[in-house]
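Good morning,

Attaching, inline, the backbone tokens for the sequence recovery test we're adding to the shared suite. The designed sequence is right after.
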């Protein structure tokens, strides 16, 4: 399964809880003279705010960072949730999430690449059980190619335009099997070799 990209395409602005307290207000991003406006924090106040986030060794400590481009559009977001999930996101100039890297408290981790329409197209992931997988999806979000490994073997699956697995190659516990399925997903032909030395010629159930 591809990681979900549910949620708005436009990330929270600089004033959101995910943004680091050291980030300056949005109105000060594009104009150096904005600090002179009435009510705007002075340079000294901004420096004091930044220094308050520094540890004695000079490390900045915060729960999130939001980096904007020259037009004030959020492009990079780094955050750590209360549940322990650490996430780093890259957005394009249209505020569409294109890349996401996440490490979760349950021991799993993943990388997701999306297209210009925020549809997940390529996902790489691992879990605490030692399994790893790669999934490629089409423009409709249907997985078309899945490659997975586990402690006991590996498998490659190719799916059709309806997302039905049609060709599966599997190697596990000394067995190697190739299976072909029809449009309904039913096995139509299979062949393989097995750990006990036997060989299964192509059959048509």
């Amino acid at each position: 399964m591809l990681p979900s990209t549910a949620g708005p395409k436009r990330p929270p602005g600089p004033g959101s809880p995910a943004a680091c307290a050291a980030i300056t207000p949005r109105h000060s991003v594009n104009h150096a003279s904005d600090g002179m406006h009435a009510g705007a924090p002075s340079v000294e106040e901004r420096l004091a705010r930044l220094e308050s986030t520094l540890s004695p060794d000079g490390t900045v400590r915060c729960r999130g960072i939001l980096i904007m481009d020259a037009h004030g559009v959020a492009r990079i977001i780094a955050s750590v949730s209360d549940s322990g999930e650490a996430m780093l996101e890259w957005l394009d100039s249209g505020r569409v999430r294109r890349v996401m890297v996440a490490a979760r408290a349950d021991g799993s981790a993943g990388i997701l690449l999306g297209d210009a329409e925020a549809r997940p197209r390529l996902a790489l992931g691992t879990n605490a059980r030692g399994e790893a997988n790669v999934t490629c999806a089409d423009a409709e979000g249907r997985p078309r190619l899945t490659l997975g490994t586990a402690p006991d073997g590996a498998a490659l699956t190719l799916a059709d335009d309806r997302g039905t697995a049609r060709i599966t190659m599997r190697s596990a516990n000394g067995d190697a099997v190739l299976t072909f399925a029809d449009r309904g997903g039913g096995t139509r032909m299979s062949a393989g070799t097995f750990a006990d030395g036997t060989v299964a010629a192509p059959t048509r159930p």
